Amino acid sequence: MNEQQLTGIGMTSQRTRNRLVQRLRDAGIQSEAVLSVIATTPRHLFVDEALAHRAYEDTALPIGNNQTISQPYTVARMTEVLLAAGPLNRVLEIGTGSGYQTAVLSPLVKQLYSVERIEPLHLRAVERLQRLGYDNVRLSMSDGTWGWPEHGPYDGILAAAAPEEVPESLLEQLVDGGRLVLPVGGAEQKLVLITRHGDHFSRKSLEPVRFVPFLPGVQR
Ligand code: SAH
Asked: Is the CB–ligand 1 distance for residue 116 below 6 Å?
């Protein structure tokens, strides 16, 4: 990232990002690794210029195509939960969206794969993440219901959209001991952590969340 992108005008300054980090700390985020990535990730470059002045509020914002960039608290929380058992090599993300969650995960894992079902969002994320130099990330335009079997199995999988039922393929693409973090449900959603133990899967319900629905097929 170049100096200009990082410093920018006042509202996108380091001080503004530090305030967001303090907010996340107060809200219960404990992972210093995650907080330090949030402190250096330019979220204002992941939203439309017209919304850049709100990029460091702890809120979801529209990114077009009826989708939203996830709330920073939720991004931090899911990343913290995914990483809680130790470092991860291969990680799959479902729902690239703006690419912000992708950017937060990128420095924390070895190799990151991310799929998005809406083509215009996928294309914008490819351009943005390349320009910002996130080079351990591979993106694909596809329906995450099927995971991304060619690159699996994964140590961790994170989904940013809520299915009513956890897709079987995602469970199958976890390594033994692998972790899947995702929102599950319809009108009422819960953040869920699923851990693989051989052919058995343990499931832990965390907190209530609000995500866009996990939808089938692709949209051009
Ligand atoms: N973490 C992203 C969140 C984007 S919202 C960000 O911070 O910007 C969730 C995204 O999941 C949307 O872009 C939506 O199109 C995508 N999505 C929903 N169902 C999907 C599926 N089956 N496969 C791939 N992406 C999906």
From this structure: yes
